[in-house]
Amino acid sequence: MHKPIDVGTRLELLxxxxxxxxxxxxxxxxxxxxxxxxxxxxxRPWEDSIGSFLSAIQDGGSVRSCSRATMPDRSNEALHxxxxxxxxxxxxxxxxxxxxxxx
Length: 103
Description:
103 residues; 0% helix; three-stranded antiparallel beta sheet; mainly beta; single chain
């Protein structure tokens, strides 16, 4: 048995027995995914099949999603960009803010 880790009030995803002190009377169980509405569709030119590593970050009342993307002309295969989208309605839909960084 290991020493428990104090996570304070942080939310933590439990996927193994690393964080809990004991596992008496509980079990870890994977849940089956449920098909629901589409919250975010990759449809911009830079969000092609190479777009990957989608992550979501809670920032106050909004959720920001960042992903690795590529420029559509592929003239420089080493060039990668980070795409940003955000939701202010509880993840029901995402918008892409115009940052003025790319034409």
